[in-house]
Specification:
4 strands, alpha+beta, 4-stranded antiparallel β-sheet, single chain, DUF1840 domain-containing protein
């Protein structure tokens, strides 16, 4: 399933549900879809997600492995030298951080909902 994030202050972005839920939890939300943050809640969510991504980049934040990143999947592809490295959660957070920054500056809400049910 896909999750779309939108705000009146920004364009919308769409990401896979598993990544969206992880990012929502890092920014202090429950991870439930659909959901929303009011204008007063956006700055705190931004600070929490920025802090979490800094920890991820520094290697001090533990994030659960995605199924595609587990040992079984790695063992199946050991001989595949062309395999792309997995994209870390801090990198996946960049578009959401951008939306949160602009929503905070505009004192706007952030809404997320499922797409493709």
């Amino acid at each position: 399933m896909l999750v779309t994030f939108r705000s009146t202050a920004t364009e919308s972005i769409t990401m896979f549900e598993d990544v969206a839920v992880q990012l929502l939890k890092l920014m202090g939300a429950t991870g439930r879809i659909p959901g929303a943050l009011g204008p007063d809640d956006v700055p705190l969510a931004l600070r929490q997600l920025e802090h979490a991504t800094e920890q991820i980049k520094a290697g001090t934040h533990v994030t659960p492995a995605r199924p595609a990143d587990n040992e079984d999947a790695k063992n199946e592809d050991e001989d595949d030298e062309d395999r792309e490295p997995p994209v870390d959660l801090a990198t996946r957070a960049v578009p959401l951080l951008s939306i949160l920054k602009r929503a905070a500056a505009a004192q706007a809400e952030l809404v997320w909902e499922a797409k493709g049910k």
